[in-house]
Write a structure and sequence with these properties.
mainly alpha; Growth Hormone, Chain: A; 2 domains; 80% helix
């Protein structure tokens, strides 16, 4: 019985010539693969609703700052806490997301994250003061932190090899889309209504999870062979031959189980130190360069500079989506390192232009040029960030860590990323109060150091296998 079951499992599940004379075996396999990928696309669409929800959470505070402060009588300190506590919740979510996704599955983790986001949005909607507002914001942050890990992992685990790169980039695109839509409709809706809008992607995600399969790799890792086969067959189509891919997955899982379990202290061993330095260093550069300060408080930056905040925010949002889409098409063509360097140079220029605009305003010089310089600087900044520094550090991080430390090292890098996001968003208003031109000169200096870091430390990983990348890193070390 066991041999017979194995033989049936390994036999190609496609029509024979006798059953359908229109196609040969090879043509039918290709045709059925193309026709039957609808479940992969549907599963990806459902998962990236979590990425879109991520964007909704991140983009909420910028267009609502004035209205919330006025309605609830919040001080600048109280609103800074509200804006930044999102990233504190996301840090907790990022730390716990790996164990949760391993324990209850990828779908279970997405359900949990959606539940926190729903509770958070409702708390914000009904809040009458700073405390419930902060609790709601932290809850949405926790959900956001879980989504930041589980969505790309789920997509990577369900996608066929030839679609994995393209489908995984949709995650970053949907985050940006969520931020941009929040920016745009936030100029039209009341802040409580905008909180209700944040419930929509959660509702779509929760409903969609009933229609898609669990990650086959997670099922295989848990020893649930029959469910693994059913899920993989559903993703590849009822007529697809899954035998070869199933064997590859099982072999991978067995290899993974034989490797020693890595701990945090293992990351500081000589053989792993350069990989960890690259991954963590890119996250530090990405966050301390000012992105969350600019993102969370875009409207107030334009308003302070004397530019129409609604027009500026909408332009910012549209540019962010377009440039992120273009950057995703270039990452496998231009290479990781060139995109990071060009992006870093643009960030320095954008910060300098914005800093100069505030300097002119403070000293009442050339006041007519202040709004133009401010909006140009912010748009150059966000366009440059979207072109490289936004997505490429995550791509590089996924490539440089050896498989036996990937979980622990990835968690450390993600934690550093969210801590940097919290630090930047929390200190932004204080820095602007201290010196608005000084704030952007500081960000320009950090981004300049980031260019130096990328030039000296970060390797080019385009066109290399993971083994070649890790071998090159070890050789240079």
């Amino acid at each position: 019985m066991e041999n017979r079951a194995e033989e049936e499992f390994r036999s190609p599940l496609i029509l024979t010539d006798k059953e359908d004379g229109c196609y040969g075996d090879e043509e039918k396999t290709v045709k059925s693969t193309k026709e039957d990928r609808w479940m992969v696309y549907l599963s990806t669409f459902v998962a990236v609703c979590g990425a879109y929800e991520f964007g909704c959470c991140a983009g909420y505070s910028s267009p609502t700052q004035s209205a919330i402060r006025e309605d609830l009588n919040l001080s600048i300190s109280e609103y800074s806490l509200f804006g930044s506590i999102l990233t504190f919740g996301a840090m907790i979510g990022a730390i716990t997301s790996g164990p949760i996704a391993d324990f209850v599955g990828r779908k279970g983790a997405m359900r949990l994250a959606s539940g926190f986001c729903v509770a958070g949005w409702l708390a914000i909607y009904f809040s009458k003061g700073a405390v419930p507002l902060d609790i709601g914001r932290m809850a949405t942050g926790y959900g956001m932190g879980v989504f930041s890990y589980v969505v790309p992992v789920f997509i990577a685990e369900i996608a066929p090899k030839d679609l994995r790169g393209a489908l995984t980039t949709i995650n970053q695109f949907m985050i940006v889309a969520g931020v941009s839509v929040s920016f745009i409709i936030g100029t039209l809706l009341a802040w409580r209504t905008l909180a209700l809008v944040g419930l929509i992607p959660c509702a779509v995600l929760l409903l969609g999870l009933f229609m898609i399969p669990e990650s086959p790799r997670w099922l295989a890792k848990g020893g649930r062979r029959r469910e693994f086969e059913v899920a993989l067959q559903k993703l590849r189509g009822s007529k697809a031959d899954i035998s070869e891919e199933a064997v590859e997955i099982q072999d991978y899982i067995e290899t993974l189980e034989r490797l020693p379990k890595a701990k945090i202290v293992d990351l500081f061993q000589r053989r792993y130190l350069r990989s960890v330095t690259i991954g963590v260093g890119l996250m530090v550069v990405q966050q301390l360069g000012g992105i969350n300060g600019v993102c969370f408080y875009t409207s107030s930056i334009f308003e302070t500079a004397g530019f129409n905040p609604d027009v500026g925010t909408i332009t910012y949002a549209i540019l962010q989506v377009v440039i992120t889409g273009l950057g995703a098409t270039l990452v496998d063509r231009a290479g990781r390192k060139p995109l990071l360097l060009v992006s870093g140079a643009g960030l320095v220029i954008g910060c300098l232009l914005t800093g100069i605009s505030f300097y002119l305003k403070v000293h009442e010089l050339a006041l007519k040029t202040v709004p133009v310089l401010a909006v140009t600087g912010v748009l150059v900044y966000i366009g440059s960030f979207s072109a490289g520094m936004g997505a490429v550090p995550w791509v590089v991080m996924s490539e440089i860590f050896p498989i036996n430390i990937k979980g622990v090292a990835g968690s450390l890098a993600t934690l550093v990323n969210w801590f940097g996001a919290w630090l930047c968003s929390y200190t932004f208003n204080y820095l602007m109060t201290w010196s608005s031109p000084g704030t952007f000169i500081l960000y320009a200096a950090i981004n300049a150091l980031g260019i130096l870091f990328v030039t000296i430390v970060v390797p080019e990983t385009k066109g290399r296998s993971l083994e070649q990348i890790q071998s090159a890193i070890n050789a240079s070390h």
